[in-house]
Design a protein that fits this description.
Elements lengths: L1 H12 L9 H10 L6 H12 L4 E4 L6 E4 L13 H13 L6 H20 L3 H5 L22 H11 L1 E8 L6 E14 L2 E8 L9 E4 L3 E10 L8 H6 L6 E14 H4 L1 H4 L7 E4 L4 E11 H8 L5 E5 L1 H19 L2
Antiparallel strand pairs: 1-2, 3-4, 3-7, 4-5, 5-6, 8-10, 8-11, 9-10
Helix pairs in contact: 2-3, 4-5
Length: 335
């Protein structure tokens, strides 16, 4: 089994004539990928493979090297490299709670292959790598919502094929489902949610683009009709336009907040904006000023600091926080 895998990896490294690669370079690349092997062993492997495949050796011109023959048929060899195996292992270890169970189940064969490959590696550092990497989430971990079986498959296949699909959709806070024909445009994972960017029915202008949550979909069926794409739509531009930041107002605001000094330390390395200014107030506090987008996310972030901050401006945001404080005071003192 391991020898077969080595053969496949080796064949992937051989270029088509007139390019060539020598046995020493191949041995070095295999060593990098966790397979300890000598140049001589590679040479023997190449000689065996050349008897079965259109692989030739140029031993007339130095440096000697091996190539696929110019007229050799294209051979696509889908082999997982040790580096890819590490990536799959990290996804399995650190992102399992973020991935819906239905999607995770589809990835299980890749996770299993990755685990087997790392265990068979000649290099101890490949085997030990998963024990040397950890992920720490600073926010409260939440379980992903359950997606109905086959929904992700229908949605992703429809997106891939640029086809419409039909669903029953339960809006937030409602019990009755509505039936929609959906034109998929893109899939975005946002926190623990998988969101479909799309248009619905015959509304497919740029202004009609909206978001649907996969966990609220039922009875998904792919249709044989081509899904229209709004003129000028680009998924990256849509995301960059603060589509997932849930705007509260238009444009940006000039934020001014007093932070306790140790609460503001991280803003020295990860600023709120390019024009952020930090001013030491010489009383154990820091004044933070920055132009930021007016979003719900901004409010959630600020509220997370509790009594360690004071919002100064803009005035309407300060009034919001006064209201939050009064509501909390009423809840906690009304005993």
């Amino acid at each position: 089994m391991y020898t077969t895998y080595r053969y496949l990896m080796l064949m992937r490294m051989i270029p088509r004539y007139p390019r060539k690669i020598d046995a020493a370079t191949i041995a070095s690349l295999l060593e990098r990928d966790g397979m300890g092997i000598t140049r001589r062993s590679v040479q023997r492997d190449l000689e065996k493979l050349s008897q079965l495949f259109a692989i030739t050796c140029d031993d007339q011109h130095k440096p000697y090297g091996w190539s696929w023959a110019a007229d050799a048929p294209t051979l696509d060899i889908p082999v997982m490299t040790p580096s890819a195996a590490l990536a799959y292992r990290m996804i399995a270890d650190f992102m399992s709670e973020m991935i819906p169970q239905e999607v995770y189940d589809q990835l299980k064969p890749h996770f299993r292959c990755a685990g087997n490959l790392l265990q068979q590696s000649d290099k101890a550092n490949f085997k030990e790598w998963p024990d040397k990497v950890r992920s720490v989430n600073r926010s409260q971990p939440l379980m992903p919502p359950r997606i109905e079986p086959d929904t992700f498959s229908v949605v992703s296949n429809s997106l891939l094929d640029a086809k419409k699909f039909k669903i029953s959709y339960v809006k937030r806070g409602e019990k009755e489902a509505v039936v929609w024909t959906v034109n998929p445009l893109g899939i975005v994972q946002h926190d623990r949610l998988i969101t479909l960017v799309c248009t619905i029915g015959n509304y497919h202008q740029l202004k009609d683009v909206r978001q649907l949550q996969l966990h609220r979909m039922k009875d998904a069926v792919q249709l044989d009709e081509t899904a229209p794409i709004p003129e000028g739509f680009n998924l990256d531009d849509y995301i960059a336009g603060e589509a997932f930041n849930y705007r509260k107002g238009e444009g940006t605001i000039q934020l001014k907040v007093v932070f306790e000094k140790d609460a503001a330390i991280h803003l020295e390395e990860t600023p709120l904006s390019k024009d952020q200014r930090l001013t030491d107030m010489n009383d154990g506090n820091v004044l933070v000023e920055a132009n930021v987008t007016d979003t719900r996310q901004l409010r959630w972030w600020l509220l997370g600091f509790g009594g360690r901050i004071e919002v100064l401006a803009p005035g309407d945001l300060r009034d919001e926080f006064k209201s939050y404080v009064l509501q909390m005071k009423a809840r906690y003192l009304n005993e």
